[in-house]
């Protein structure tokens, strides 16, 4: 879904929550962003400390949910920038954001079954898509993989909005024992239905998306993936987030042409 409408907003922090170890969610009041958002789009957040930008570049985060005039984003605290952001959310009252940016998911024909696959924090953009289909009366099958059981959070929310919710862990500590491709191969996720009956979406670490795409490609199928990459502007000006086309004919920009792509179009 393409859009060219975005807003810079000093958004009020409505709530914040530590969802799991090093995973934080934040709800902001941002009416214009909420009104124009499509599942799969993102915002960039200005991270500041002591009234200085640290780092200078905005940080991109998927919008994970919209409720009225409020938006949510979820992030993994994995470095200096996100650690500062966590403290800003804890102690501050507003965040400066730009969005919604990028092109979201092609939500397709509602008559077709939907399979949503998340790996780790990839649940963030998948959450918005799950809620979209639930609101349309078309609950999707959700497969969420993590390394251990400690990676899951707010599972009642996801279970209540999906037609089937399968958890998978690499170490077997919860749900299916194995990764998401193992779970797909088992047939447990789709209850024996052929994968060709589904529109398929996969978001997570790049190796996971590559593995899912390769598995589907072997059956002549494709999925939609949402890519993450460092961005300077988030609007296609700096050309810093290029990803190679799968046919080798050139490059696409994750921020402007994506972040969502069909797996047949980009090299993972």
Report on the structure:
The protein is of the alpha/beta class and 268 residues long. The protein has 2 domains: 7-101, Translation factors (Elongation Factor Tu (Ef-tu), domain 3, Beta Barrel), CATH 2.40.30.10; 113-226, Rossmann fold (3-Layer(aba) Sandwich). 21% of the residues lie in helices and 35% in strands. The protein has 6 helices and 17 strands. It has helices at residues 31-36, 80-91, 123-135, 155-160, 180-186, 206-217; strands at 7-20, 23-29, 42-45, 48-49, 52-53, 59-67, 70-76, 94-101, 113-119, 140-146, 162-169, 176-177, 198-203, 224-226, 242-244, 251-253, 260-262. It has a 7-stranded mixed β-sheet with strand order 12-11-10-9-13-14-17, with helices on both faces. A 6-stranded antiparallel β-barrel has the order 1-2-7-6-3-8. A hairpin with a 6-residue loop joins β15 and β16. The protein is globular.
Structural class: alpha/beta
Cα shape? globular
Contiguous helical run count? 6
Number of strands: 17
The total tally of domains equals: 2
| Gross CATH architecture of the largest domain | 3-Layer(aba) Sandwich
Average predicted confidence as pLDDT: 92
The name of the CATH topology of the largest domain is Rossmann fold
The CATH class designation of the largest domain is Alpha Beta
Low-pLDDT windows of residues? none
CATH superfamily of the largest domain: Nucleotide-binding domain of ferredoxin-NADP reductase (FNR) module
| Terminal residue distance | 21 Å
* Helix proportion range: 10-25%
Q: H/E series, N to C?
A: EEHEEEEEHEEHEHEEHEHEEEE
User: What is the strand arrangement across the widest sheet?
Assistant: 12-11-10-9-13-14-17
**Sheet with the most strands, sense and barrel status:** 7 strands, mixed
Portion in strands? 35-45%
What is the gyration radius calculated from CA atoms?
18 Å
């Amino acid at each position: 879904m393409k859009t060219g409408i975005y807003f810079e907003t000093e958004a009020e922090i409505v709530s914040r929550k530590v969802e799991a170890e090093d995973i934080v969610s934040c709800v902001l009041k941002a009416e214009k962003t909420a009104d124009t958002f499509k599942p799969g789009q993102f915002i960039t957040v200005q991270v500041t400390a002591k009234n200085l930008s640290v780092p200078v570049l905005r940080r991109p985060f998927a919008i994970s949910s919209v409720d009225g005039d409020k938006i949510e984003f979820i992030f993994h605290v994995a470095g200096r920038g996100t650690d500062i952001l966590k403290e800003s959310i804890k102690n501050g009252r507003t965040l400066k954001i730009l969005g919604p940016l990028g092109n979201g998911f092609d939500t397709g024909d509602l008559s077709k079954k939907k399979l949503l696959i998340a790996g780790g924090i990839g649940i963030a953009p998948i959450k918005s898509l799950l809620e979209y289909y639930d609101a349309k009366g078309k609950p999707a099958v959700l497969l969420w993989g993590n390394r251990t059981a400690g990676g899951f959070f707010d599972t009642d929310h996801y279970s209540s909005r999906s037609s089937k919710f399968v958890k998978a862990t690499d170490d077997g500590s919860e749900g299916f024992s194995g990764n998401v491709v193992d779970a797909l191969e088992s047939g447990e996720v789709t209850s024996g239905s052929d994968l060709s009956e589904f529109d398929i979406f996969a978001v997570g670490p790049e190796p996971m998306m590559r593995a899912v795409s390769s598995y589907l490609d072997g059956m002549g199928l494709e999925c939609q993936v949402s890519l993450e990459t460092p961005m300077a502007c988030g609007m296609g000006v700096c050309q810093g987030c290029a990803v190679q086309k799968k046919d080798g004919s050139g490059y696409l920009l994750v921020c402007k042409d994506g972040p969502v792509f069909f797996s047949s179009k980009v090299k993972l």
